[in-house]
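User: Teach me something about this protein's shape.
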Amino acid sequence: MAKLTAASRRRIDEFRQRVRGMRYEPLPEGELSAIPDRRRQGLANSEIEGIHLTPEERAFLEMLDEERVPHELRLELATAFALAAEDRSAAAD
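Assistant: First, the predicted structure itself:
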């Protein structure tokens, strides 16, 4: 996997702190162990459609795994992560 920039590491750490400040039931071990297979399938489907995750996006998903974030909350956080990236890109233009 490609190395992350310092800015990407900071961004992911900011989201990790956000996650740690939330109240949620961590994923049970059985569901957590199914994530790698589900991710492989999802990535394969995305690549078929021409969608490729950046190293930062991959690291973000790994952080969600490490924090055992449940599926419903993952969707909310992934949306916020993507929107923040869009805002950052727009500001750079």
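Now, about its shape. Residues 56-93 form one domain. The chain is about 75% helix and 0% strand. If you'd like, I can walk through any region in more detail.
User: That's plenty for now, thanks!
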